[in-house]
C-alpha cells in the first residue's frame, strides 16, 4: 500500500513539473510564439494541430509529438495550467504589448 502511494505521488509530481511547458516555450525570448496574449496556450494548440510559425512551414514538432505517446497527453494536460498562468500574466502582456 505504501509503495503504491509513493508511485502515485511520484507520478503526480512528474506530471505537475511537466505541465506549463507551453507557457515557458511560448514566452521564451529567443522564440516568441504566437499572439501577444495567451502565447503559452497558443503554443500548445500549435504543437498539437500544427502551426507554420511553430514548425516553420513543415511539421516536425507536431509529427514528433503525435509519434510519441506522452507528448499529446501531457500537452492536453498542460493546456488548462497554461491558460491559468497566461491569465495571471495578462497584465504584464498588456504592458509589454503597449511598449
Q: How is the secondary structure organized here?
A:
Blueprint: H1 2-18, H2 21-26, H3 39-49, H4 52-55, H5 60-67, H6 70-88, H7 90-98
Helix pairs in contact: 3-5, 3-6
Characterization of the model:
This protein has helices at 2-18, 21-26, 39-49, 52-55, 60-67, 70-88, 90-98. Helix 3 crosses helix 5. The radius of gyration is 15 Å and the shape is flat. The protein has seven helices and no strands. By secondary structure, the chain is mostly helical. The longest helix has 19 residues, at 70-88. The mean pLDDT is 76.
Number of helical segments with 4 or more residues:
7
Structural class: mainly alpha
Please trace the helix and strand order, writing H or E for each element: HHHHHHH
Estimated share of beta-strand residues:
under 5%
Organism: Ectopseudomonas khazarica
Keywords: Lipoprotein
Protein name: YceK/YidQ family lipoprotein
Give a short overview.
With 99 residues, this protein is mainly alpha-helical. The protein contains seven helices and no strands.
